[in-house]
């Protein structure tokens, strides 16, 4: 695997050949039936047509792994579809949390075990999930994690501003 990565070719076909998996050269990945889809490459990689294909293929869950990997039109469609849609602003928080963990360890001259980092990350991600879900329920949009993440995030910023004396 490392040899493939270091080759500089960065071709998915090489990976598929090495690991003997099917490669679809003329298709976008979102038309391939699956249970869970993870757009993780770049911003706006999954558009409205892709979102429709994902729903048509009965994908149960779509998790954004890159910042804004779904276009606004695709996002609006997914929010109204019968699919669990987890937005980047909630899902990518794990990477931000790990950066904070690293800074905390450096500042305190400590090293946490892998298990301790995993436990802390689990707590952070569970809290984010709970906040998104509870906020969506509070505003009668149960299960709309995009709405829940937006409102919960806005509240955190507004509360911090008020705590600092800004109004």
Q: Layout of SSEs?
A:
Blueprint: H1 2-6, H2 12-18, E1 36-37, H3 48-56, E2 61-63, H4 72-79, E3 84-86, H5 88-91, H6 93-108, H7 114-138, H8 145-163
Parallel strand pairs: 1-2, 2-3
Helix pairs in contact: 3-4, 6-7, 7-8
- Unreliable stretches: none
Q: Identify the CATH class of the largest domain.
A: Alpha Beta
CATH superfamily of the largest domain: NAD(P)-binding Rossmann-like Domain
Tally of alpha and pi helices:
8
Verbal overview:
The longest helix has 25 residues, at 114-138. The chain folds into two domains: 1-86, NAD(P)-binding Rossmann-like Domain (Rossmann fold, 3-Layer(aba) Sandwich), CATH 3.40.50; 89-167. It has helices at 2-6, 12-18, 48-56, 72-79, 88-91, 93-108, 114-138, 145-163; strands spanning 36-37, 61-63, 84-86. Helices cover 56% and strands 5% of the residues. The protein has a three-stranded parallel beta sheet with strand order 1-2-3. The protein is built from eight helices and three strands; from the N terminus they run ααβαβαβαααα. The chain is mainly alpha-helical and 167 residues long. Helix 3 runs parallel beside helix 4, helix 6 packs across helix 7 and helix 7 (114-138) packs across helix 8.
């Amino acid at each position: 695997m490392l040899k493939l990565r270091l080759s500089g070719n960065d071709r998915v076909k090489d990976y598929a050949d090495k690991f003997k998996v099917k490669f679809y050269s003329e298709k976008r990945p979102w038309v391939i039936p699956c249970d869970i889809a993870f757009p993780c490459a770049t911003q706006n990689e999954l558009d409205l047509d892709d979102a429709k294909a994902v729903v048509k293929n009965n994908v149960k869950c779509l998790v954004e792994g890159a910042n804004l990997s779904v276009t606004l039109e695709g996002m609006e469609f997914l929010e109204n579809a019968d699919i669990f849609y987890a937005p980047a602003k909630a899902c990518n928080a794990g990477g931000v949390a790990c950066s904070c963990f690293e800074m905390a360890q450096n500042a305190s001259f400590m090293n946490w075990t892998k298990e301790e980092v995993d436990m802390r990350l689990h707590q952070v991600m569970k809290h984010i999930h709970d906040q998104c879900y509870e906020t969506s329920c509070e505003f009668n949009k149960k299960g709309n994690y995009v709405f829940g993440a937006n409102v919960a995030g806005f509240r955190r910023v507004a509360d911090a501003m008020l705590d600092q004396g800004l109004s």
